[in-house]
Design brief:
By secondary structure, the first copy, chain A, is mainly alpha-helical. Chain A is 65% helix and 0% strand.
DNA sequence: GTCTATAGTGGGATAGAC
DNA sequence: GTCTATCCCACTATAGAC
């Protein structure tokens, strides 16, 4: 699908993703990206319209997996058990490859909001919608439980942060995130029929 | 203790803390801070040595509460119950006033590492030490449980992030963080004598 | 303590040769 | 596609009057 001339562009995306993660978007200059590629700063403008276009291209690569899960949830009959099943599906979707995207977004918290909003990237909006929909299924719906549900869905982010200054492997991070999500969800459903038969 | 002439300085710290949180440290200029104060950009240099000095002054205001808890932990006889007690004490220390500090650090993840490290501020180092010490008390010490323990200690950060795009009150955020920490800790100690009598 | 003025730097971005 | 050269701008920081 993509032509042979896309090699430099893709290399630039890899380098940019790494540098944006390590140093942050604002603290990374085009010169730095170009240097690591061994090309001139101006050459980047052949492949991208500018710095913001680079980060947009990175965000566009990431489809919003939450949207698929959201569609599935809306097909099911609502029940607390559906909440448990949805969270379970969500945490099962965590993979080591997705961690680099998580780390990139974690290192640039205000990046999504800060983009000159023209065609806004839809990263994260699906997850927010998913949290809203699943919130309707909470047996006891309070401000506290709503936040807890979101914490369960964001457990992968929390695990990445918790393991930041650690030598924990990606697998350990994912395992911890899944366990935390399961524990919290199970607690949210305690006293209902959601316990496994 | 602080003289009458410190009014502008303190006002500048408040404004800077807010703007650094909303926009990030790098994205906030001294001109912007000065404008909100109604003074000239250059006047800030009378109160602070420079931009980095402003953020350092903000970090110095925050003592590292984890260090006190760490000292207490080291006085106690080690046991899984001590782990539970320590986490409980830690989450009880969350208050609404501390949330603004949490949000500030969350909005600037690489700020602590990025400071030209002379006299490094000790924010966060105590928490890391605390996590290490408490990790020794884990009944089942694996990479996964070590990360989970850190997640419990960082639950306030996770709750703040989870509630970011929400209208949840500070109290609800704190309540969710405490509950998450308790749930996770209790799970880490399941099967030991740590259950309450 | 606050101001005006300006130095000095580094960034994003463009023009045009090759 | 990549380069050199350049423009423009915003920022940090300093000098010195008031």
């Amino acid at each position: 699908m993509r032509g042979r001339g896309a090699r430099t562009r893709e290399a630039a995306q890899q380098v940019a993703l790494r540098l944006f993660t390590e140093q942050g978007y604002e603290a990374t200059s085009l010169r730095q990206i170009a240097d690591e590629l061994g090309i001139n700063k101006a050459s980047l403008y052949y492949h991208f319209d500018g710095k913001e276009a680079i980060v947009r291209s990175l965000l566009e690569q990431r489809g919003d997996e939450a949207e698929e899960l959201l569609a599935w949830v809306r097909e099911q009959p609502p029940s607390p058990q559906l909440l448990a099943d949805a969270v379970l599906r969500w945490v099962e979707s965590f993979t080591a490859e997705k961690l680099q995207g998580i780390r990139f977004l974690a290192a640039n918290p205000r990046l999504l909001a800060g983009l000159t909003d023209g065609e806004e990237p839809r990263v994260g909006v699906g997850l927010s919608q998913l949290a809203d929909d699943l919130g309707e299924l909470l047996p006891e719906r309070t401000a506290e439980t709503v936040v807890l549900l979101r914490m369960a869905l964001l457990s992968i982010n929390a695990a990445v942060q918790a393991a930041a200054s650690t030598d924990a492997s990606d697998d350990a991070v994912i395992a911890a995130a899944r366990r935390a999500a399961r524990i919290v969800t199970s607690d949210l459903l305690a006293g209902t029929t959601a316990d496994r038969p």
